[in-house]
Structures are given as C-alpha cells and as structure tokens.
Amino acid sequence: MITIRMMADDEVKPALKLARKAFAGIECLFISKPKTGIVALIDNQIVGGVFVKQISIQNGSLGYLDTVFVDPACQGQGIGRQLVAAASDYLLQQGCQVLSGIVKDDNVGSWQSFLDSGYKRVSLKEAAHHLGMDGMLKQYFVTPLFACNGMELYLNVKTAPLDAKKVHSLPQIIAYLSLNAVLMLAAYFNHQPFNLFLCVYLLLLAGGVLFGWLGSCLTKREWYFRLNSGGAVLVAFINFVGGLYPMIGSWYPKQYENTPAFRKAMGITALCEWCFYLAITLLAFLMANQASIFKLTASLGSVFLLYRIIAVYPFESYGGKRVYQWHKAVFLLMAGLSLGLILMVNGLL
C-alpha cells in the first residue's frame, strides 16, 4: 500500500539521496537540499517524493514543485501522479494562487502527472500573463528554467483554469528559428563574417525541421512542432564564449504511448533529422576546398552531428535518446558514422 504524507525532518537526507538517484548525471546537480516536501512510502520505505517551494510574487505567492521523483524500481504505479496531486493540494492550502513545475520535453511520465492534476504547458508569454512580468522573471531565474535547455514550463492557475491551446507548427517553427538567430547574435565577435555564419546556421536548423517533418510523415501519427521555453540564458552564454548550442525545438506526437511502435515512430523522426545533418556535412566536407561556405557548413554540421549522438541530458532532446530507445544497434551505427565524419572534418583522421 502506498502512503503519501508530508516529509519529516529526519527524512530529508534519504529523500534527497533517492532524488539524486532518480535523476542521473547532470540533472542531479540541479537538486538542492529541500526545506519542505511530500514523500511516498511503501512498507515505511521512501519510494518517491516531491520538494516544494513558495516564491513571493507581486500578486501573492507562487507554489513551485521543485523536484518530483520516484524510485526507478517503483515507477509505473501512479506514484508520481499521486505526489503531484498531493503537493498541489498542499500549496493551494498555503494560499498559493498559481502553481508551477518544469519538465523535460519527452518525459511523458512526469508531464502526464502534471496534466492529470490540472496543469497546462505554457509559453513564457502565457506565464507573464498569469504571473505578471515580475512573477515570470522570478519563475525563470529563481528556478533552473533559465539554464535547462529542453525543459518546459507547466502552470496551474486556481482563479483562471487554463485551457489546452492548440499548437500550430508554423508559428512555432518561425519562433524557433527567430529565437536561435537572436541568441546567436551573442556569437558575433567569435565568427566572421557573421552574415555568412548566421545564414549557414539557420539553414542547418531549418533543414533539421524539414527532415524531422518528413520523418513524421512516415508514421501514422499526428505531430506538431514546438519550441521549448527553457535554457535561453545558458544558450546565449555558451554562444557568447564561442560555443554553438541551439535552443531546443522538435516535432512532438500529439499522443504518447508506452509501446515499441511508438518508440519506433519517435526514433524514425529523429533518425531522419540525423540523416540530413550527416548528408549535408559530408557533402560540404567534400567541397570544402572550393569555397569558405562549404568549410563553414562542414564545421557547424559536425557540431550538430555530435549533439545527436549524445543520448543523455542536456543533449538528449536533440534526438539521440529517441533513436537509442527505439533501436540500440541503429544508434550505435549512427554514432559510429557521425564520429568518423566529425574526426575527418576536424582533420583528426
């Protein structure tokens, strides 16, 4: 039997340890020691929890579900859904008029728990409408949202229930390309001539969007394109210091399933994007001696290829994890071909 209750003082350390176990790698670095939380227990053993915070904003208090976690051995039992519901009830009882949480884009297990508890995925523009500009900025900078590329914001507004808005792909694609172009301005002093660099960069992004769409057409599912709202500050900083790190935008299915057929559909869409980057990088590499634009295209394309063969956060949202979860042998082949081309482009072979 699952018991859901407030976290006791002597349960902070074991709950924190379990949370960091549930979020492997870089993600666990964003988990700080909690002051308040709710835990789930089975036979008096903590198997999950949610850490909560209250953030003061102009119109009252914002309740933030900081970290929702479930022991990997106990996932799939609805524990996460119960924790989100219990934490939401607690924060509402504390007088919070708006509740929020951030979730990784393809983490259906987590964001479905939020949707079932009355939350809706929102843009920063929508967040500013409900929280006020100061509230949106606090949500963005007090939480890890400013640094978490691939994360999305969810809100639950007590006084004005949010309706799920239909997402139209074309405006999202335009926003995705435009935002990445603006953030790339931070790299102006690192890449000359900038106009050529920006054109090639946007061409690569647009090509990925197009081939992702072609991949989605190969499946018998409905898809839409969506720009993620998280990580813009980190993206701008990395570009400013000379790196190349785009905001996440991807094709997402309208309905998620926990089936092999669904994982195949996700993998094929990501694989089609990778095929574009492999082909254009190889072609540009073969023509690199003819014009500087081809050398630049090969160089940037090799970075896009690298990101697509790292199947762990914060790079998994570029598509590599989708292929890995679908077919590990295909992923290994993809990784091998990518690494070979990356080494040739960089003169290491």
From TrEMBL:
Is Transmembrane one of the keywords?
A: yes
List residues of the N-acetyltransferase domain: 2-143
Q: Which organism is it from?
A: Dielma fastidiosa
Please list every transmembrane segment annotated in the UniProt record, as residue ranges: 173-189, 195-215, 227-245, 265-286, 293-310, 330-348
Instruction: Tell me the keywords, alphabetical order.
Output: Acyltransferase, Membrane, Transferase, Transmembrane, Transmembrane helix
Q: Which SUPFAM superfamilies match?
A: Acyl-CoA N-acyltransferases (Nat) (SSF55729)
Q: Supply the name of the protein.
A: Acetyltransferase (GNAT) family protein
One Gene Ontology MF term: acyltransferase activity, transferring groups other than amino-acyl groups
